[in-house]
Automatic annotation (TrEMBL):
Keywords: 4Fe-4S, Iron, Iron-sulfur, Metal-binding
InterPro entries recorded: Asp_de-COase-like_dom_sf, MoPterin_dinucl-bd_dom, Mopterin_OxRdtase, Mopterin_OxRdtase_4Fe-4S_dom, Prok_molybdopt-oxidoreductase
Name of the protein in question: Molybdopterin oxidoreductase family protein
Domain of life according to the entry: Bacteria
Native organism: Amycolatopsis heterodermiae
Annotated 4Fe-4S Mo/W bis-MGD-type domain residues: 1-49
Lineage: Bacteria, Bacillati, Actinomycetota, Actinomycetes, Pseudonocardiales
Length: 680
């Protein structure tokens, strides 16, 4: 096939690339400007991986055996029907992924609510973006990770990055920060922190106290943008009643960051001509994640940054379609266009598009963590269908998740490799991957991208849309097209009038090279690269200060578990590692899990660099190779979460949930450290 202009299959930057067969070369696209990271450069290798799934399989007598597509889909449809007849519609659950195209996310939500009639659907974006989405919606009335183009950052004088490490997670992004004075908030001295003029290293779980301390300095030192607060916001007084008690010296005692550095950060941001506050997973994946992101948004609002050309607040979306994946219906509480499932007007409109009675649509269901915990339980789902996710590695308390999957009557996994979750399935369905299908994605700046088919899939492989179509027809529902463009045309109509309005987007406009950032409410609308310039998405057009108070981590160290652990990514791997661990050039660099420890902390545990260590919490334990990090806080250990089996970081992470976003607390928990054969 000829060379095709396409996009990287990994993170939400969605770098532009050329694909000639399986050979990748970068292209000059705005977000990456001709650059790619190691993952992007090697992404073509997965297209010819010998680990590729090409035949449906069903488990007989404990072993997965190849079967025909008709046999597999007939079997699944029959089992779903039997289980729902015996236990009700919610006996079947769906778990989606933030890497699925917009078309797949849309049809998955429709399939759950129309073909199955179940409320039990959520996706792995609950583990990724949910806190930022909740906080952004509360403050601005709409959630678009970055409400401005990435390229705007090139004109920034100062950028504060809270809990973000793009130098490793999305390296081409850092070129947009070259001209800025960089402030990095991270308990680790990451590769991104090395680029900063000011590194603020708070104790894990104290980011909100730090945000309150800097905000206090903004007001007390005379930097508050009073005219902006008066004209474009509401709620400052209620917010300030809390922030007023967080003078920097008090915040220093909680965070370990000096009051002088907090005041310096406040002054840098306030004196900048153009400034940005950006957050990411490090400050969001907490049981107080929504409040913590709200604290950074309050800081940005106090400086008058959001909705002003050249400045703003934004969130660095993680997964490839983490933005679009949460807009079109695979979240537990949402309908297409970022509509709320419990909104009667939204239900009526979308039901009209789908040709069903609004009363037939189920209400909101369980969030991801709660859904996984309910599997096989009394009153919980008896069957689970997984598309584009590897929950056995990625979910908190992962051994418990594995146990719940084993308790199901039916586990169906659609994937292109035998992930750790697929290996447990009763039915495995081999599906297409990024270069083998057309589809749209929405990147971290709200830009809708068309990723074109570049090669044919292996014989015997179908797309996820084919799977949903085949099952829907067998369940008695005909209006489930399998062609991506046809699905997108329906998505356009279903999103019309919603917050994320795609109704003016078409494959023709995207093929013509138009840069379309949602909302795009009509076919002649140019898109909205910069949101909120004329007003925020609340009815009165004003942004909201939200009162937030620091409460700290859900779990604190004690005598038995005296250290804190945090998790994250490394440059060479992506998400659960199911893809990147199959690429030799990447896996050879980081072939197994490691635990990053300060040498003094390791010495107290009787560990040397290169030893195997046991990291143990109240929920479980993992083993990992010891790496020394002189720059790390002595009370902290860091573990990447890309590895399976006994090296799963999520064996010990805390499933405590944020009360608003239902985000688990991945980023901090109490642990003990020991040699594999020794005492803690």
């Amino acid at each position: 096939m000829p060379q095709v202009d396409t996009h990287c299959p990994y993170c939400a930057l969605q770098c532009g690339m050329h694909l000639d067969g399986v050979r990748v070369t970068p292209r000059d696209f705005p977000v990456n400007a001709g650059g790619l990271c190691q993952k992007g450069w090697t992404s073509g290798a997965l297209l010819t991986s010998p680990k590729r799934l090409t035949t449906p399989m069903i488990r007989f007598n404990g072993l997965l055996e190849p079967v025909s597509w008709d046999f597999a889909l007939d079997f699944v449809a029959r089992k779903l029907t039997e289980l729902q007849a015996a236990h009700g519609p919610d006996a079947v659950a769906i778990f989606g992924g933030g890497g699925l195209t917009n078309e797949k996310a849309y049809l998955l939500g429709k399939f759950a609510r129309v073909a199955l009639g179940t409320s039990q659907i959520d996706y792995n974006g609950r583990f990724c973006m949910s806190s930022a989405a909740a906080a952004g919606t509360r403050a601005f009335g709409a959630d678009r990770g970055m409400p401005f183009p990435v390229t705007d950052l090139a004109d920034a004088d100062v950028v504060l990055l809270a809990g973000a490490n793009p130098a490793e997670t999305m390296p081409p992004f850092t070129q947009h920060l070259r001209g800025a004075d960089l402030i990095v908030v991270d308990p680790r001295r990451t590769a991104t922190a090395e680029l900063a003029s000011l590194h603020l290293a708070p104790a894990p779980g104290t980011d909100l106290a730090l945000a309150l301390g800097i905000l206090h300095a903004v007001v007390a030192d005379g930097h508050l943008n009073q005219s902006y607060v008066d004209e474009r916001t509401t709620g400052f007084a209620a917010m300030w009643r809390i922030a007023a008690s967080w003078w920097p010296e008090r915040a220093e005692r909680v965070t370990g960051v000096s009051a002088a550095d907090m005041r310096l950060a406040a002054a840098k941001l306030a004196n900048a001509r153009n400034a940005y506050v950006l957050t990411a997973r490090g400050t969001e994946q907490h049981a107080t994640g929504t409040a913590t992101v709200g604290g950074w948004i309050n800081l940005a609002l106090s400086l008058g940054l959001p909705g002003r050309p050249g400045s703003g607040y934004g969130c660095l979306t993680g997964q490839g379609n983490g933005q679009g994946g949460r807009e079109h219906g695979q979240k537990a509480d949402q309908l297409p266009g970022y509509r709320k499932l419990d909104d009667p007007a939204a239900r009526e409109y979308v039901a009209g598009v789908w040709g069903v009675d609004p009363d037939s649509l189920p209400g909101p269901g369980r969030s991801a963590t709660e859904l996984l915990e309910a599997l096989g339980q009394e009153g919980g789902p008896k069957a689970l269908m997984v598309f584009g996710s590897n929950v056995v590695v990625s979910a908190p308390r992962s051994q418990r998740v594995q146990d719940r999957l084993s308790a199901l009557d039916l586990l169906v996994v659609a994937d292109f490799v035998l992930s750790e979750t697929a290996a447990l399935a009763d039915v495995v369905l081999p599906v297409t991957q990024w270069a083998e299908e057309d589809g749209t994605l929405t990147n971290l700046e709200g830009r809708i991208l068309l990723r074109r088919k570049a090669i044919d899939p292996p014989p015997g492989v179908k797309s996820d849309l084919d799977v949903l179509n085949g099952l829907a027809v067998r369940l008695g529902h005909e209006r489930f097209p399998a062609d991506p463009e046809t699905v997108f045309e329906e998505l356009r109509i279903a999103s019309k009038g919603g917050i994320a309005d795609y109704s003016g987007v078409s494959y023709d406009r995207l093929c013509a090279g138009e840069a379309l950032h949602w909302p795009v409410p009509s076919g002649d609308h140019p898109g909205t690269p910069r949101m909120f310039l004329d007003g925020f998405a609340h009815p009165d057009g004003r942004a909201r200060f939200v009162p937030v108070e620091h409460t700290g981590p859900a779990e604190l160290p004690d005598d038995e578990f005296p250290l804190q652990a945090t998790t994250g990514r490394v440059l060479q791997h992506y998400q659960s590692g199911a893809q990147t661990r199959l690429i030799g050039e990447l896996n050879d660099v980081v072939p197994e899990a490691f635990v990053e420890i300060h040498p003094d902390t390791a010495k107290r545990a009787g560990l040397e660099e290169g030893d195997q260590a046991r990291i143990r919490s109240r929920r479980g334990e993992m083993t990992a190779l010891v790496r020394f990090a002189q720059s790390l806080r002595p009370d902290l250990v860091f573990v990447p979460f890309h590895f399976p089996g006994a090296q799963r970081a999520n064996l010990f992470t805390n499933p405590a949930l944020d009360p608003v976003s239902r985000m688990p607390e991945f980023k901090v928990c109490a642990v003990a450290l020991s040699a594999v054969d020794g005492a803690a």
